[in-house]
Amino acid sequence: MGKVGLLAGVGNLPVEFMRAARQTGHEVIVIAVVPDVAAALKEEADAYYEINVAKLDKVIKTLRHEGVREVTMIGKVTKEILFKGLQFPDLRTIKLLAGLHNRKDDTIMLAIVDELAKDGLVVADQTAYLKPLMPPVGILSKRRPTEAEREDIRFGFATAKAMGGMDIGQTVVVKQKAVMAVEAIEGTDACIRRGGELGQGNAVVVKVAKPKQDLRFDVPAVGRQTLQAMLDSGCTLLAMEAERTLFVEREEVLALANEKNICICSVDESY
After folding, report:
1. Which CATH architecture has domain 134-267?
2. Is residue 110 within a helix (H) or strand (E), and if so which, with residue range?
3. N or C: which end of the chain has fewer CB within 10 A?
4. Pfam families under this entry (predicted)?
5. Torsion, CA 62, CA 68, CA 74, CA 79, rounded to 10
């Protein structure tokens, strides 16, 4: 079936992708582009490299050396590193960043897609092997939302879609139809913690895809770390967009959510 390149960030989602791709007969060439990726990547990949995200030319040359033509970028790589300063970026990375007209998520990712394409590397749909991880509309936990929470979900869904349309973020935290926090460059977990603390308990987290979501990157995902951020800050409900959000570590997350009386549901615009 050929080789698939995986540019891996932090979290369990790259592992899920690697295992799903290997089950279909693909060899998976993993490049960890940030520290602290899942250990299973090194243990199970057909080939494994650690190359910092700032070394774009080396990443591309490694993929080509391995005979890779299709690449997936998946896992958490926080964009704030661009503002803190990349460590010793190579010339290719410097030129790419210098050519950006802004530093929005989509602008950065599309520039990387274009740079890979120059060397014949096609960035594939992140969800190609992961459709089973995207739940349909329904209540996934034992606890169901209250009517007040349903109103917050509807309000939060519309707000998150508006924020996504502006390429700001995909997550909002709301309480009593007031926005406690909007995800920006800090990422989902930090947004949840900030919003939950400001809401002082019983806040609702809503995560959606962007209205024009590019499935090659930044497909929304939730998992164990999402739930932990909620528990740390007093959020009591998580609503994800149905069939457009990757739900990772589902059994573990739902078991803990049920234990802590957290509601988790999958919704769409008709909710």
Report:
1. 3-Layer(aba) Sandwich (3.40)
2. helix 105-117
3. N
4. LpxI_C (PF06230), LpxI_N (PF17930)
5. 40
- Range(s) of the chain covered by CATH 3.40.50.20: 3-123
CA angle 18/19/20 to nearest 5° reads 95
Ranges of beta strands (E only) in 107-226 are 122-123, 138-139, 171-175, 178-182, 203-207, 221-222
Which helix or strand (DSSP H or E) is residue 265 part of?
Answer: strand 263-267
H or E stretch covering 151:
helix 147-165
| Residue 73: both structure tokens together | 């970028």
Residues of CATH 3.40.140.80 domain(s) within the chain? Answer: 134-267
User: What's the CATH fold of domain 3-123?
Assistant: Rossmann fold (3.40.50)
Which has the closest alpha carbon to 254: 243, 263, 266?
263
Distance CA 124, CA 24 (A): 15
State the pLDDT confidence band at 271, using cuts at 50, 70 and 90: confident
H/E segment holding residue 117:
helix 105-117
User: For 42-46, 48-52, 201-205, 267-271, which range has the lowest pLDDT when averaged over its residues?
Assistant: 267-271
Q: What is the pLDDT of residue 1?
A: 67
Q: Structure tokens of 125? A: 């749909």
